[in-house]
Write a structure and sequence with these properties.
The complex is a heterodimer of chains A (461) and B (181).
Chain A: H1 5-16, H2 24-34, H3 41-75, E1 87-93, E2 99-101, E3 126-128, E4 145-147, H4 150-154, E5 158-164, E6 169-176, E7 183-185, E8 222-240, H5 248-254, E9 259-273, E10 276-290, E11 301-312, E12 319-330, E13 338-356, E14 359-372, E15 379-380, E16 402-417, E17 420-431, E18 437-438, E19 443-460
Antiparallel strand pairs in A: 1-6, 2-3, 4-7, 5-6, 8-9, 8-19, 9-10, 10-13, 11-12, 13-14, 13-15, 14-16, 16-17, 17-19, 18-19
Chain B: H1 3-11, H2 15-36, H3 40-57, H4 68-86, E1 96-99, H5 106-111, H6 114-122, H7 126-137, H8 142-149, H9 153-180
Helix pairs in contact in B: 1-2, 2-3, 2-4, 3-4, 7-9, 8-9
Classes of the chains: A alpha+beta (461), B mainly alpha (181).
Chain lengths: 461, 181
């Protein structure tokens, strides 16, 4: 580094200290903005992950708690608070030739008895049957009917219910002085009812009053599989990994050409509550994106020129006649900046969905774990053709193949058939890590996509 | 505040010291970057990158190894080179360039004003300008330039010769225009 030092020192000083008209204050503002600060990227990862986990746990927990609670109520013995003194039951059998008489008994229950005290012991029934008039034989099963209706229980002092079946038997049940949570009704004769043949076991849209098809409401514990295809617009930006400087030039270039992403995937959805669901999927996403660097549209051309001129030394002491034949080739700098990258994504989401007839609208949000292929990439020329030149290698190297991102989306679902839906989703994705890291230049490429997803969903209850 | 204090402050990531260092050396950085850049925007980016690098790696600077200014200039030059590497500079293929004679005396260059030389440098192709700057102005050797640019030493020599010839031609054209007027 010491050649011609004495000769060039003056030049160097002149060149290095030349006056300029730069806005150095603005430059400092930009530098200061990019000066390293304490990095806390992990906070967002953990915050988002933790929130998602918490919400999931709460929803799942609520679901299971509600299941357990309802079961507990039904199985818990209810301690009577009063005695049930009179229970009368009269059963009229139509036609009148058939009579069934039930005995009436007054039961006095101790206050401390458990619920089994409410179960009336089987008593022989005094029954007269005429088979020719009464083709169906009543079973002699005697049971107690427990009405778990607090509202009914509060209707004091007498509760009278009439049960009518299609069979020619009418039971009139009356209860009086019932003030406990449960009313114990006397025995009923029940008859075996032959189920009517069901013509079509396959689900079909039920018909409304005017004959139109109504939607099939989704209940909890519904699984569905969605096969989808999506296209997204890609926004990309570059950051220098070391300096966190974002190149304005690259940002400008990234917006000069529309970048797109295609993905195909299959996702499974579990509707654990009628309106809440979790979703997990596997998809292949292909992103056409800016690789790095600058596009320079220079053309290859050869310039030849002959010239002859007088040349005078600045000292003015000597004159020369000079001539030159100049053949210059301006080499194009055709850089192939676009690259096709393949990601394998595992999107996980939790969402809310509300049904309106056969239409349903939903919102969802979640994380994406992705795996990037380590490959040399495909160079794409500006006319969308692939560059067929094996000698040119992409500088696409990944420090880690595993990446993360997040997504939010909203969807519209339409029931085509009772178990087949058409789903249209608008979703936004942000990849948190870098898509590309080049060791030498220390670049990070960030990606954001906004796209539409269309798919068919098959439901399994 | 002495320069040593300034550097120590920057090593502590003291923003005030960083600002003072910036004020002191921004003109130098601009001067160096303008010699390498194609335009003002590129020079702006080079200076921007260079200061970020300086503040990041200022821990590596020790006064024992030399004064601050050459170290600083080297970082600015490296930032400019990175810019070229990022843009994948392609050096022009071998060109035929014949002069009838060595028409320019060495005094011509030394008599040029800095502004004139810069204008001429801007008219040189990227590869020529880079090699010329590194060799003639910065004082790097052929081997060092070859290492920096990832090309052979003979290519450096070739580029340098052509750069000089081209520069001479440009000077001659400029002078002939002036003479004509």
């Amino acid at each position: 580094m010491d050649n011609n030092q004495s000769t060039n020192k003056d030049w160097r000083d002149q060149l290095n200290r030349r006056p300029h008209d730069w806005d150095t204050e603005q430059l400092w503002v930009e530098i200061e903005k990019d000066l390293p600060k304490k990095r806390r990227p992990a906070v967002w990862y953990w915050l988002f992950g933790g929130t998602a986990l918490l919400v999931t746990s709460l929803l799942v927990g609520t679901y299971f708690l509600s299941e357990t609670a309802s079961k507990t109520v039904s199985e818990t013995a209810v301690r009577p608070t009063t005695s049930s003194t009179v229970l009368e039951s009269t059963t009229d059998v139509l036609p009148k030739t058939n009579t069934i008489t039930s005995t009436t008994k007054t039961t006095s229950l101790p206050k401390t008895d458990a619920v089994q005290a409410f179960v009336r012991p089987e008593k022989p029934q005094k029954t007269t049957l005429t088979e020719e008039h009464f083709p169906l034989k009543p079973t002699q099963q005697v049971s107690s009917l427990i009405i778990n209706q607090p509202k009914l229980a509060k209707q004091k002092p007498t509760l009278t219910s009439t049960f009518t079946t299609n069979l020619p038997v009418t039971s009139k049940v009356s209860a009086s002085k019932v003030s406990s949570n449960r009313a114990v009704l006397p025995a009923l004769e029940t008859y075996p009812i032959t189920p009517l043949p069901i013509a079509n076991l396959e689900p079909s849209f039920p018909k409304g009053k005017n004959g139109s098809m109504r939607s099939v409401q989704i209940s909890k514990n519904t699984f569905s599989l969605l096969f989808y295809q999506s296209i997204s617009h890609v926004w990309t930006s570059f950051e220098l990994k070391n300096t966190a400087q974002q190149s304005q030039l690259d940002r400008r270039l990234a917006t000069e050409r529309p970048l797109e992403s295609w993905s195909t995937g299959l996702s499974a959805k579990w509707q654990f509550l009628p309106q809440f669901f979790v979703e997990a999927g596997l998809e292949r996403q292909q992103i056409t994106t800016l690789l790095q660097g600058t596009i320079r549209d220079e053309t290859v051309r050869t310039v030849e020129s002959d010239s002859a001129f007088f040349y005078t030394d600045v000292s003015g002491l000597r004159n020369y006649l000079a001539g030159a034949h100049d053949v210059r080739t301006i080499t194009t700098q055709q850089l192939h900046n676009y690259n096709r990258t393949v990601l394998y994504n595992l999107p996980l989401a939790i969402g809310y969905e509300k049904e309106y007839g056969r239409l349903a609208f939903g919102l969802k949000g979640g994380v994406i774990v992705n795996w990037k292929q380590r490959f040399s990439g495909e160079f794409i020329l500006p006319d969308d053709t692939l560059l067929d030149n094996e000698s040119i290698q992409s500088a696409q190297l990944f420090s880690s193949n595993i990446g993360m991102g997040w997504q939010i989306g909203s969807h519209v679902r339409y029931q085509l058939r009772p178990r087949l839906d058409l789903q249209l989703t608008l979703q936004h994705r942000q990849f948190l890590g870098s898509l590309m890291e080049v060791t030498n230049n220390g670049y990070e490429q960030n990606l954001r996509t906004l796209g539409v997803q269309i798919g068919l969903s098959k439901r399994f209850n | 505040m002495t320069q040593a204090d300034l550097i120590t402050g920057c090593q502590r990531q003291d923003r005030q010291c960083q600002r003072l260092l910036y004020d002191k050396y921004v003109d130098l950085a601009i001067g160096v970057s303008l010699r390498y850049a194609r335009d003002k925007q590129e020079a702006w980016d080079i200076v921007h990158d260079a200061f970020l690098q300086v503040f990041k790696y200022i821990d590596n600077f020790t006064a024992v190894r030399g004064t601050f200014e050459p170290w600083f200039c080297k970082i600015v030059v490296n930032s400019a080179l990175k810019k070229y590497q990022k843009n994948r500079l392609v050096f022009p293929e071998a060109t035929e360039f014949h002069l009838l004679d060595d028409i320019v005396s060495p005094t011509v260059l030394s008599d040029l004003q800095a502004e004139d030389l810069l204008r001429l440098l801007e008219r040189l192709p990227d590869g020529y300008r880079l090699v010329f700057n590194l060799y003639v102005v910065e004082g790097y050797r052929h081997g060092e330039i070859a290492d920096l640019l990832g090309i052979s030493a003979s290519s450096v020599r070739s580029q340098l010769t052509r750069a000089k010839q081209r520069l001479q031609q440009l000077i001659a054209q400029q002078n002939s225009l002036e003479y004509g007027q």
